[in-house]
Sequence to fold (628 residues):
Amino acid sequence: MSASTTYEAPRWLRDLIRFLPLKPQFVLSGNVRDLQLAEVAPGTVAAVPLSSALTTALGAAGYASVIGYDPVTGFRPLQRPGESPSSGAALLTHLGLTVGSDGAAPAGPDLFSDVLGRVAGGTAAVDGPVAVIADFASRLVVRTDALSNAEHQMFTRALVLSHQARARPCGTPPRPFFNTVIWVVDKEGDLPDWLVVDNPRIRHVPVAKPDQHFRRQLASMLLPGLEGARAAGPAEIDAAMDALVEQTEGLLLVDLSAIIQLGRSEGLSLQRVGDAVRRYKVGVTEDPWARIDRDKVRHGADFIRARVKGQDHAVTHVLDIVKRAVTGVGAPRRGSRPRGVAFLAGPTGVGKTELAKTLTGLLFGDDTAYVRFDMSEFSAEHSDQRLIGAPPGYIGYDVGGELTNAVREKPFCVVLFDEIEKAHPRILDKFLQVLDDGVLTSGRGDRVYFSEAFIVFTSNLGIYRLEADGTRVANVTPDDAFEVVQTKVRAEIERHFKTALNRPELLNRIGDNVLVFDFVRAEVGAQILAGMVNGILQDVEATQHIEVILSDTAQERLSELALADLSNGGRGIRNKVETHLVNPLARALFDADARPGDRLIVAALEPDTAGVTTLDVSRSRGAGGFAA
Fold:
C-alpha cells in the first residue's frame, strides 16, 4: 500500500514537528486510531498507523531513538525503515528494563513512571534525543477524577518533569532537542486536567479526520488494486477516484483501505467502486433497489389506487420518486442521500399514512415492513434521545436509539414519520443531516446511513392557520377546489417552516416533494364506503362462514349516514360504518345465535333518537336450512 507521489504531511504532524524544540510533552487526541500518510522513503508514501508515522517523522527531525509504550505490551523500540532492532533493544536495557525474546519490555504504571523520569529528566545514557510515545494513554487510568496513588504519582512526576525539562543542543549544526513525551489519547479529557489544562509546557495537538486531499492521495494508491484498473484509461481512473473520494466523506483512511479490500475480495471492478462503498456502509451485498420488480412498479398506480382513493396526483408523484430511485436518475454522485423523500400533507383521513403503507407493500410485498414513528410521542425537547440514543454517561446509552437501531438493522426500508408537525423543533434538526448527507450519528458515536431508505413525512399542516390574535381557524374547507387547497396548504407549510420554526433549510431539502392531498369528495367517499362494506362482509363470511347481504334500501341509508360529513375523510367514514353497520351487525349475529352456514339479509337500518342503529334482519340457513 505505497506509491510514489508528492507527499504533504498532515497538519497535526506539521504542528508537532514545529513545536518539538519548544515543548517537552505533547498530547495527541482525536483521530488517533486511523491510518496516517507518511513518507517511509524518499518519494514513497504509505498509509501506516499513527505510531509508525510519528516514528518516521521524529527520525527525520533528528531523534536518535523512539520508544513506544502501551499498557498491554509495555515498552518496545519503534524502528524506522532500515533501522536495526538491536539498537532499540540496547536502549531499553540502558533504561533498566528487562527485554524479552520478542524485543519488548513489560512494564506496569510504576515502572512506566520510573522510565518516564529517566527519559524526560535527561539522565538516560543515549547518543541523542529520545522520544517516548505513550499509546492508549486513556487506559492508564480508570477515572481521572479518582486517581489511585500509583496513578497520581505517575502524572505528578510527568507534570514536574514537563516544567523541569531543558532542551539540549544536538546534531551538526547543533539544534535544541528535548527528550520528548507524546501522550496518545482518545480525548484530551482522558488525562487529568491539572496536568494538561493551562500547562504552557504541554501542547495539545488534535488529529483531524482526513479531508478530501488526503483521501484522494490514498485513493490514488489503492485503486490500482481493483480489477480492470491496469487497463483503464486516465478518464476512467479519475472518475473512479472522484466517486471514491466523494462517497467516503466523513470516513477514515482505514475505511478507504477496507473498502478497496472488500472490492478486491468480491471481485468488483474499478467502475463499481461505488458499490464497494455502499456495501461497506450499509452491509448490503446487492443493490436492493436494482432488484425491485420493474413490472410491479410500472403497474404500481393500479396497486396503490386500489387502496388510496381520489389522490391520483400524489400517487403519480410518489411513483416518479420510486422510479427515480430504481433507475438512479438524478442521484448525487456521492450517493449518500436517501433514495427518496416525500412530504405528504393534507386533511386528516385522506390516505397519507395509507399511501406510505401501500408503498411499502409495493416495494417489499409486506405492508408492515416499514419503520414508523408517531412524532406526537417526540414533543419533548430531549425526546431526540429516543431516536438516536442517549449520550455517554446517561441512562440508556448502551441501548442505542430507536431510529438508528432500526435503520442499521433494515437499511433498505420505508421510514415513516407520522404527523411530523407535532415533534419538537429540536427533533427536526436531526433530519437536516439525514436529508442532506444521508447519515445520522447515534448517541454512541456510530454513523448510520440512510442512503438505501425511502423517507416519508406526513403532516396536517396547512389545514388550519393561526390568526393574529392566536385563534385557530380553517385555512381550507371541503368546498374549496383542489387547486385552491393545494395553493393554500403549500403556502401555509412554507410560512410554518420559515416563520414559525425558523427552519427554511429543512423545507428546502424536501424540495418539490411536498404532496398535498385533496379532501375526500362525495364520489371518492362512495368508493371508500363501498370498499369498507365489502371488506367487512367478506371478513364475516371468511371467518364466521356466515353470508350477510345488504339490501339496496339498507345500502342507501348507510350511505346517507356515513357520507353526510366528509370533513374527517376516510377515518370519519370508518367511524360511521362501525356505528351504523359493524356494531349492530355484531349485535344481530350474537342475539340470533348465528351459526356457520347461515345467511342474514339486512333489509333496512335506522338509528334511533339515542343514536343506536337497529338492523331489520332476516335469517335463513343455506341449502336445506330453515327460516327465522
Summary: Residues 141 and 148 are 8 Å apart (CA to CA). The domain at 522-621 is CATH 1.10.8.60 (Helicase, Ruva Protein; domain 3).
